[in-house]
Amino acid sequence: MATSSEQTSEQIIPGSLAVIFPHAEEAAGLKRKLSERVSTRCVALLEHCGSWKNSPVVIAEVGGGVRRAERATRDLIIMRRPRWIIAAGFAASLRAEIECGHILIPDVVSDQQGNTWPAACLVDSEEVSSRSTFHVGKLVTLPSLPQTEAERLAVIETHQALACDTQTQAIAEVCQRENVRFLSVRIIDRDPVDDLVTDLEPIDRRSTRAGKLGAAARALFQRPGSIQDIWQRKKKTKELSDRLAECLTGVIEQLQQRDEDKKRITES
Question: What's the confidence (pLDDT) of residue 69?
Fold first, then answer.
């Protein structure tokens, strides 16, 4: 007989909404909002199954980088057969007007070579223009984020993008290949006004908890005063994750309503 955890997990396999995050810190806000959450360690991802207002939701923490994102997305589609996949998490702004805490909903995603993949965009131009903290436009996926002002300007000139990250393109590519509907919601955690490089950057670039702890220990050893900066960074990360979660729950409700309306039209 299946345990209650297994029953909950099995109930939401078909037709769920899947949200893919690189790291736990980015997913934390949405995880706190899910009811009946069940967590499972899989080969390529850490999975959290639950629901938001009766909508089945799967959260996948996949680690950083394109390869991890590609493998985890492929495995997630095989295991859960989601009707939508949302690539979520943090991104770095490339434009001065797109500040930390702003939301970016890409309508197209590109890689470093200039190849592009479409992304569903559920907001109209009037809604975006009325909300200065929301942006729609191009997101470029790079092997690493710009570390200098010159690198940032070079990315803008080459790709004409609003922001960049290190994995959305891989998720979009797998979704297109597997015929799964795809969109992305990113919150800006670094804007061009901030210093692009700090001694805390190695912490952010680590993909595992052990790696982050090791990088934090080195930062403290090299500059004991960085403990205050680490605390502020942690507080800021939680605030951004919670703000992103508020946006994502709205998107989930919109997708659920959209699919229900489509089903009623089909059945009538």
Answer: 97
